[in-house]
Amino acid sequence: MEQPSLRTGRLELVPLGDEHLDLEVLLDSDPEVMRYLGGRARPRGEVEAAHRRRMEDARRNPGLGFWVGFDDDGFVGWWILRPPYGPDQPKVEGEAELGYRLLRDRWGRGYASEGSRELLRYGFGEVGLERIFAQTLTLNVGSRATMVSLGMSFAKAFVSSHDEPGTEYGEVEYGIGRAEWTERQSLVESADARRPRLVAFDLDNTLIDRDGAFRAWAAWWVEKEGLGADALRWLLAEDKGGFKPREELFAGLKAFGVERTVEELVHEYDREHPQFTWVEPEVLDGIARLREAGWRVAVITNGTVTQQQLKLDHTGIGAAVDYTCISEAAGVRKPDRQIFALAADHTGARLEGGWMVGDHPAYDILGGINAGLRTIQVGHYHEGPKADHHVDAVTAAFELILS
Q1: pTM for the model
Q2: CB neighbours of residue 327 within 10 Å
Q3: What is the mean pLDDT of residues 152-171?
Q4: C-alpha of 109 from chain center
Q5: Are 351 and 367 contacting, i.e. CB atoms less than 8 angstroms apart?
Q6: Strand ranges of the sheet holding 153-158, from the earlier edge strand across to the other edge
Q7: What's the whole-number average pLDDT of the chain?
Q8: What pairing do the DSSP bridges indicate for beta strands 323-326 and 171-177?
Q9: Torsion-angle region of residue 117: left (phi > 0), alpha (psi -120 to 50) or beta?
Q10: Can you tell me whether residue 294 is helix, strand or coil?
């Protein structure tokens, strides 16, 4: 069978080709990536020789081989599923080795296990393998933890046939058989089916009228500073719905004679603006009704912790929902699927069958689509990816979901 391209929630896995050689060189040029794989960066000549062997592996073993992984931002790393290879892997019909190697800036984001789970599914479900195993140095506790998370069990420890840094402590093998994998999948699917579903809401201009709060703050601030109507008109025009960087916004205000530094103005704004936000009682009632109906409710908002947490506290929304996820604290922003997965993990909910409600197509709607959620756009402020439903106010979204 031909080696196919594979897809997961975040990854596209394509069969290794000659066009990927420079990516392999990039990956192997990082000594940290190669820490447990020889302990040093590999020169291009060595990588080219390894590339030729990998391509030949795929030709000799139809359906198996190396896959190069990409996310929305580009190259992530590679994964392998190939028959036993080398002196430490006895040749057994129906078995294959699983492996992975990722760019350092993709570590800690669940990509290794995400791509590996897809290869397990492919190996058992489509190729018909009986057992899949993975090997690593005994010292590589991170990779061993990934193997365990995939449902693999410790199989053996053995003396390494390689003579490289770290091999003096030996290697370990973990594995999983077809029957174990099938049973595990059944248990996972059964547990997922019992988990509550997630409803994720954007905060600004979704649950609260962020622009209305800005207008109220701007009128108050201009009067406090003794500035005129021109300054107020400029502020409202240049705010751009909050998407203009605050440093740029307040740097522009210097033309109106404001003497404090931009840093001071931003610091004050972050603490003043949230005090002008409010939430309609019908919104808090809608959140309560969703939770009573068994939904897990989360707020997922792009922004700074100072500004967004003060809004959540001031309006009472933070206390009304199951979880709040602010991009600055999470280290990831909408529309990245990972921020939705974090919310699901923290609430004990599943994404399947869930909803994302927000006003911005490029962040909220696209993010919901990336996470596999049904989507509702609130308002008509922006153009972009189309939501499943479009409503004028968030209160209508509550009725849609509950129906």
Answers
A1: 0.58
A2: 19
A3: 84
A4: 7
A5: no
A6: 6-7, 12-15, 65-71, 74-82, 95-102, 131-137, 171-177, 153-158
A7: 92
A8: unpaired
A9: alpha
A10: coil
Mind listing the pLDDT tens digit for each residue in 208-222? Answer: 999 999 999 999 999
Q: Across residues 328-341, what is the average pLDDT?
A: 91
Cα 46 from Cα 52, distance rounded (Å): 10
Q: Which of 84, 61, 66, 83 minimizes the C-alpha distance to 23? A: 66
Tokens 């420890």, located at residue = 157
Which H, E and C letters describe 152-193, residue by residue?
Answer: CEEEEEECCCCCCCCHHHCEEEEEEEHHHHHHHHHHHHHHHH
Integer Cα distance of 101 and 146 in angstroms:
12
Distances (CA, A) of 272 to 44, 91, 112, 221, 227: 55, 68, 43, 9, 17
CA nearest neighbour of 106 among 27, 25, 7: 27
Look at 81-85, 141-145, 180-184 and tell me which has the smallest mean pLDDT. 141-145
Distance (Å) of CA 352 to CA 76, 330, 335, 347, 402: 25, 22, 17, 14, 16
Structure token pair of residue 83? 């028959």
Identify the residue whose tokens are 């992530």.
Answer: 76
Distance CA 144, CA 136 (A): 7
Beta carbons within 10 angstroms of residue 374's beta carbon: 17
pLDDT score at 203:
98
